[in-house]
Structure formats: structure tokens, C-alpha cells
Protein: Alginate lyase domain-containing protein
Organism: Fodinicola feengrottensis
Amino acid sequence: MIFRPVVALAVAITLALTPATASASSARSCTLPVIGAVCAPATVVLDGKLLQQNKIGLGLGDPTLRKALSALLAQADKAVTAGPWSVTDKNRTPPSGDKHDYLSLAPYWWPTTAPTDNNPWGCPYVQKDGVRNPIVDSISDHAERGTAFSAIYQLSLAWYYTGKASYARKAAQDLRTWFVDPTTRMNPNMNFAQGIPCKVDGRGIGIIEFSYAFTQVLDATAILDVGAPGWTAGDHSSMHSWSTDFLNWLLTNKNGTDEAAAANNHGSFYDMLIAALALSTGQTTLAAQVVQAAKTKRIDVQIQANGYQPLESTRTRSWHYFCFNLVALTRLAQIGQHVGIDLWHYTSPSGGSIFGAVDYLIPAATQGQSVWPYPEMDFRQYAAVDVLHAAAQQGDKAAKAALSRVPAEPGGDLFPARPAAEQLDDISTSVNASGSGSAGA
């Protein structure tokens, strides 16, 4: 049993009387013995009030929430004994000479010749869209980033729902190792992300390796801020400083401005990251500006009246990228709700909308690849589950009706317990790839 029935009513009453949000300074007033956290965390993508309501539902025995939480705890129970992870673990040194700088290689670029002593990378490199070069896994930052950030997210949510201290303490350790401890912390830049051997040390396109996953970290720290054991005011301050520095780098470095100019999913994810960081660091005006601008900068450009996404359709992994871009847009829409900007119900002059783009996925999501007319090297039907959930939650009746006919992700449907879209078809685990991590370019 996740919650004792005898405390269910106490949970509901306590939560109903608790302020909706909590700051780090008042965190201890947001926890109670046995029950644990009772305040709504000031999350930036997730709806903190919905997490609070979920906790009431769990206390009252809601079967859908219990099933989702059981799947989440299965992941958290593995994460609690794994790690911690650090950028200093890698066996290569970035061009800066500092292992605290994040380093990764472009996943879809391949050597044209066999490596030799004079040409150890087999240069020049050529692009093979959608086909991931396993050499990228020789540098551990990308894979460890994905594992660490996912673990931090799962552990923080597991603590919030169960009150089990070991989850919170492990999340705090993982956060301090990657972001805070001077011996293991990452420098707040991505100067050397998705480099191409013999061509370029790093590219703006590599920022996407953080864009989605780091917003999970921001929500995790907000959850821990409501009184997690092992998480201190100093930890909160250190993460706030790191996030502020990272946001400044994204806004001023050429890699960041290059990614901001991308018209496709890269631009969507950049906007989502900037808005989330701005909201997390108290820059709500900037967050609102980014979300507002996405109406014309992203939706007008990316989505046609029938929901078709032309900038993602020519990719060899088109189904993945149609879903992937909507992960960014639906999460950005959720950030917008925190700052009073309604992206969900915006319709472009030509008729494009997030709901329309989600509904465009329904035939293939419910029937399979046979009805998907575009290239896809590794079709995973369940990739659309979370964006359908997210749209349904905001009133999309077609998405809601379709959900029961879409296969759940392996390991179970977690959306009810962590209600924001995630990238479910990790492209690095496709039939053409190895290792782990997020989608590449």
C-alpha cells in the first residue's frame, strides 16, 4: 500500500488547508510526519496544484493514480541505488582542457574512412539522418546526463507522493554531484555539445540534449524545495545560481542564439528551456515574452491547418519528430499557464494549433505505422501517448477519446503521476542506434 487508508482523510483535509505554493524559506511548514510534503510545489512545467490534488487522490485510493505511481516507484527504486553521475566521469577532455565542460558528439554524423594514426577519427564526417553513430557513446556525458536527470525527476516525485526520505536524499545527492560539488559539477555552458570531429568543436544544435531533460531537473528542485529531507536552503541557492548562469549563457552565447533561430523542433525546445529557466529564476516577464512569441514564431511556422508539421515530415524519423516537437510545444504551453499566456487555444491565421497537431497523430497512434504516410525507420506507436494525454487534459475531446486505443509506453503509463509530456521513444535506443539519451539533430 502506498498510503495507509487511515490517514487518507487527514491528507485531504491537510492539503485543503495548506497554501498552494511554498518557498525554500518556509519549506519545513510544508511537511508533516508520515504524510510528507503537503504544499503545492512551485514547478515550472508541471502544475504544482495538480500534484497536490494527486496526493489527495492517492490518499483516497484512486486506482488510476495508484497504477501510475506504482510504475513511477519501480523506476525510482532502481534510481535510489544507482549513480551519482558527473561530467568528470568521461574519458576524453573537451577542447577547453576542462572536464567540467559538457562534451558530446553529433549523433547522425559518420566517418568516411577507416581511422589511422594520422586520422584517428576517420575524417571527413558525413551526415546520415536518423542513423545514430555508436561512437557517440564513447563519451559518457550524454548518456549519464540522461540517466541522472531522469533519476532526479523520478526520485523527487517519488518522495513527494510517498514521503520516503531515501528518495529525496538520493535526488539531493545526484543534484549536488552534477551541479554543485566543486570536484564534480558541470560548468553552466554547452560550448562543446554535438561537435563533429575535424569540423567543429560544438554547435548550438547540441543544446537540445539539455532542453527537455533539464526542465525536469527544474521541476525536481521545486518539488524538493517544499521540505525534502537532505535538501537545504544552500542547495536551493546553488541550483538557482547555476540555472541563472546557464540561462545567461543560452541568451548570449552564439551556440544559444543559433539554436534560438532554428525553425523546427530545435527552436521549440530552445524556447521551452528559456521559458522554464526564466520562470524558475524569477524572471517571469521573460518567461511570458518567450511563450507569447511562440504563437507566431513556432505555431504559425510549424503547424498547418490540418495539423501537419512540414518541418518534421521529411526526416527519416518523421513519426518520432512529429511527436517530439509536440513534447516541446505542450510543455511550453504548460509553462505558459504559469505566466498567464494561453498557448493551448491559440490558432494561427492559417488555422494551425497545438490541438490540431496532436489530433493529426491520432490515426497512426491508434492504428499503427500502416496509416502513417511519411518516412519512419523505427515506428513506436506509444510515442504519442503523452502529448495526447496533455492535450486531453486541456479539453481536446478527440485526444481524450483516442487514449484508450493507444498502447502504453513500456513500463506503464506514468502520465497521471507526472502530468507533462515526455519523450517516450528515446531515439538512441532505436533499431539503428545504441546507448541512451535524447534525440539528436
